[in-house]
Amino acid sequence: MKRDIRYFLFFICCFSLITAALSGCGPLGLTGPGQSSSVSCISRGWPHNHSDLKPDPSLDFGTLDNGFRFVIMKNNEPRNRVALYLDVQAGSLAETESQRGLAHFLEHMVFNGSTHFPPGTLIKYLQSIGMSFGADTNAHTSFNETVYNLLLPRGGSRDLGRGLLVMADYARGALLLKREIDRERGVILAEKRTRDSAGYRLYKKRLQLSLAGTRAARR
């Protein structure tokens, strides 16, 4: 593999962090009165397979033997760097009422202990290879997905291997240690308080009005 590889890799992961209640989640969680609840949140194929719009010809699509899907796109910016994205197709709409907040909590927990990175070591490891937390690595949870991203400092095979190791732990290596769960609870609650602005409350009210009777209005 050449040292100056410049690719965006977008991994679309066909498994769920939350296995319960997937069958109760329709498109965008719009499973209100009169709507079928048999549609899964997980997309079973590429979006362009269900559209008359053709994908960008520069995209290279593939599927591994285990069903893991990926997209590779060559890009000259940022120069000599590789961006990795892991898209887990499960978010807050995949939760039952008793699980509300679990998708976001699991997103946090992968940073707090995994197969190859014991608690407290992942951020230090990323910094040791020239990355900064927040700018070069982060994650977010939405209605239908949880996305992890890494912007590697260089485009060589060594850095790519390091990035894939981290992504593999994000996908299946979370330890979910009790002491780390208890510690992270405070972080989540602080984040919730920070987000509780007038603008956010207005956004929630709009959802409840425009999507009344659906799961999305309750998330």
Describe this structure in words.
- With 219 residues, the protein is α+β, with helices and mostly antiparallel strands.
- It has a single domain, classed as Cytochrome Bc1 Complex, Chain A, domain 1, CATH 3.30.830.
- The protein is built from 5 helices and 6 strands; from the N terminus they run ββββααββααα.
- It has a 6-stranded mixed β-sheet with strand order 2-3-1-4-6-5, with helices on one face.
- The longest helix has 18 residues.
- The chain is globular and about 50 Å long.
- The N and C termini lie far apart (44 Å).
Structural class: alpha+beta
Assigned CATH superfamily: Metalloenzyme, LuxS/M16 peptidase-like
Q: Would you identify the CATH architecture? A: 2-Layer Sandwich
Count of β-strands: 6
Distance between the termini: 44 Å
Task: Trace the largest sheet across and list its strands.
Answer: 2-3-1-4-6-5
- According to CATH, the fold-level topology is Cytochrome Bc1 Complex, Chain A, domain 1
Number of helices: 5
Percent of residues in β-strands: 15-25%
Name of the top-level CATH class: Alpha Beta
Biggest pleated sheet? 6 strands, mixed
Using the CA coordinates, give the radius of gyration.
Answer: 19 Å
Element-level helix/strand string: EEEEHHEEHHH
Low-confidence parts lasting 5 or more residues at pLDDT below 50? 1-8, 10-27, 32-39
Overall geometry: globular
Query: Mean pLDDT across all residues, rounded?
Result: 83
- Secondary structure: helix percent: 25-40%
The number of distinct structural domains comes to 1
